[in-house]
Structure formats: structure tokens, C-alpha cells
Design a protein that fits this description.
binds flavin-adenine dinucleotide, single chain, 8 strands, Uridine Diphospho-n-acetylenolpyruvylglucosamine Reductase, domain 2, two-stranded antiparallel sheet, Uridine Diphospho-n-acetylenolpyruvylglucosamine Reductase, domain 3
């Protein structure tokens, strides 16, 4: 599917965007659209490799304005390939992979594109761990959204049982930081 990309709108998106915007002719485009499941072969019109939340907000706003189908890419392990869209906009979170650990509270704050290896590397020096994917390149975000059954599940439950709160970019991109807390008192 070929999607017409409005140049003026694209220029607007590029202004102030700190990450990288890849169109099909760009070097790195094919590499960026590879998923773990190599049977998925979709060609997005735009891949927005976001550096921070402002980039994500800009990309969501752009996609909505142009009525593009939007896909969000974390670790790219989803077998059905929902991290890619044919002819639409991919919001690629892989550059947003920071993890900070609060050893006293025994919590970790994980950016949307971090993988299990980012999480494990940050928590291990504190002798902390939680239920994580069996393969270290799995995205923490996608894993947790799907429930997340890993090595420590029999002791600590699923990854989603250990999720305390999430900051969300909403579809109307107005809500940052829309924070959902569980339990509500947290
Ligand atoms: C080799 C392999 C091993 C696996 N092992 C396990 C296992 O041990 N236990 C288990 O429970 N599952 C396992 N899975 C399944 C895997 O956890 C899920 O497919 C999970 O959804 C992958 O997340 P991802 O971020 O890597 O993938 P992606 O394909 O990037 O994302 C999956 C879905 O989540 C969405 N998403 C991802 N990150 C975000 C975010 N930050 N914000 C909003 N939406 C987001 C994407 O849009 C997509 O719809 C495995 C999969 C593979 C391929």
C-alpha cells in the first residue's frame, strides 16, 4: 500500500523531533522494520524512532492529523506483528530504553522501549529481580501488557501483577502524563 505523505506536515513533524524519522527510501528503513517474527513483512509509510516523550506526542499528533494507522513498537517480539503497520506510522520506542531503580522502595521505572536485558542489567547490582521474559530481547512494555509469564512467576506472579503504575500517552496526545496507578493508593 502506498500512502501519500504530506511534505508540509512532515516538515512540521521533523521540527523539534530529536529522534529519527525514516521514510521507505532512507538508509536503515529495512533494518528498522524487522521484527523477531521474520515472516512479518510490512512496509510502513513512516517510522518515527522516538528519543523521548515529546517525540511520541508529536508522532501521535501527526498520525492522527493525517489519519494514518499507528503501530507502537517495543521489543518487536509480538508474533502477530502488531508492532508494524502496512502504509501507516510506526512509533518505534527502542531508543527510549532507560531504567532507574529505587533499591529502598524495591521498584524500577522503565521507559517504554526498554527490553528485559535493560531491566535485568539495572536491577541485578541491587540484588533485585522481578518476573521477566525468558528471552532478554523481549520488550518490557509488550511483555507486561500481555501478562508476562517468566522465570519468577511461580514466586511473584505475572509481570502485570507487579506493575504499580504506568504513564500513558493517550490517543488524543493531550494527556501526558496521564498516570494510571494500581493500587489506587500507590
Ligand atoms: C522468542 C520469544 C520468547 C517469548 N517468551 C515469552 C515468555 O517467556 N513469557 C511470555 O509471557 N511471553 C513470551 N513471549 C511473548 C512476548 O512476551 C509478547 O509477544 C510481548 O507482547 C512482546 O513484547 P515486545 O515489546 O517485545 O513486542 P512488540 O511486538 O514490540 O509489542 C507487542 C505489542 O505490545 C505493544 N507495545 C509494546 N510496547 C509498548 C509500549 N511501551 N506502549 C504501548 N504499547 C506497547 C505493541 O504495539 C504490540 O501491540 C515471547 C515471544 C518470543 C518471540
Amino acid at each position: 500500500m502506498t500512502t501519500h505523505i504530506d511534505n508540509a506536515a512532515l516538515q512540521e513533524l521533523r521540527q523539534g523531533f530529536s529522534g529519527e524519522i525514516l521514510l521507505p527510501e532512507a538508509a536503515g528503513y529495512d533494518e528498522a522494520r524487522k521484527l523477531f517474527n521474520a515472516m512479518i513483512d510490512r512496509r510502513p509509510a513512516i517510522i518515527a524512532q522516538c528519543d523521548d516523550v515529546e517525540d511520541v506526542l508529536a508522532a501521535v499528533t501527526y498520525g492522527r492529523r493525517l489519519e494514518l494507522e499507528i503501530a507502537v513498537r517495543g521489543g518487536g517480539h509480538g508474533v502477530a506483528g502488531k508492532a508494524l503497520t502496512e502504509g501507516g506510522l510506526v512509533i518505534d520506542l527502542r531508543r527510549m530504553n532507560g531504567v532507574s531503580v529505587d533499591p529502598d522502595a524495591r521498584t524500577a521505572t522503565v521507559a517504554g522501549g526498554a527490553t528485559m536485558s535493560h531491566l535485568d542489567r539495572a536491577t541485578q547490582p541491587h540484588d533485585l529481580a522481578t518476573t521477566g521474559g525468558r528471552v532478554s530481547t523481549t520488550g518490557v512494555g509488550g511483555f507486561t501488557l500481555g501478562g508476562g509469564d517468566g522465570w519468577l512467576a511461580r514466586k511473584f506472579g505475572l509481570a502485570c501483577d507487579n506493575l504499580l503504575a504506568a504513564k500513558l500517552v493517550t490517543a488524543d496526545s493531550s494527556g501526558w502524563p496521564a498516570t494510571t496507578c494500581w493500587p489506587p493508593s500507590w
